[in-house]
Amino acid sequence: MIFGIGIDLVEVARIDGILKKWDEKFTKRIFSGDEIIYCEKKAFPSMHYAARFAAKEAFLKCLGSGIWSGLTLKDVEVFNNRDGKPELKLHKKLKDKINGMGITGMYISISHTDNYATAVVVLEGPGA
User: Fold this and answer.
1) What are the Cα distances from residue 71, in Å, to 36, 57, 63, 82, 90?
2) What is the mean pLDDT of residues 6-30?
3) Burial call 51-61: b when 16+ CB within 10 Å, e when fewer
4) Overall fold of domain 2-124
5) How would you class 15 by CB atoms within 10 Å of its CB: exposed for 0-12, middle for 13-18, buried for 19 or more?
6) What confidence category does residue 64 fall into, taking pLDDT thresholds of 50, 70 and 90?
């Protein structure tokens, strides 16, 4: 059964502006070391940061809670598996919360263009 669906859309130019202004202050607060390495290897890092930012926001929307509920965007990590498919890795506090909610599956889709990045996350578990 679907527990929650979240979607987010981010303007790449907005993330690019934040990166130019705040650089590591922003990236280290929002992204894991592996996410930073992944994005920085790309020809247009802003696009990939924007997609991962959208995925993190979409995930929190699935839970019906935002970053103000004690969770942070850094608690959710986006990575690509061996086949290149995006997946989510949850860190301790968030992993414990999800396990306590009975979530049995997490699904993510990410897309981006030069101007926008979007992500959809679906959580499977007990009905709401």
Assistant:
1) 20, 11, 11, 28, 11
2) 97
3) bbbbbbbbbbb
4) Ribosomal Protein L22; Chain A (3.90.470)
5) buried
6) confident
Strand, helix or coil at 125? coil
Give residues with Cβ within 8 angstroms of 18, minimum separation 6: 26
Predicted pLDDT of residue 127: 64
Could you tell me the pTM of the whole model? 0.93
Tokens representing 108 are 């993510």
Q: Residue 72's pLDDT band (boundaries 50, 70, 90)? A: confident
- pLDDT exceeds cutoff 80 at 66: no
**What are the structural domain ranges in the chain?**
2-124
Place of tokens 């992944």: 38
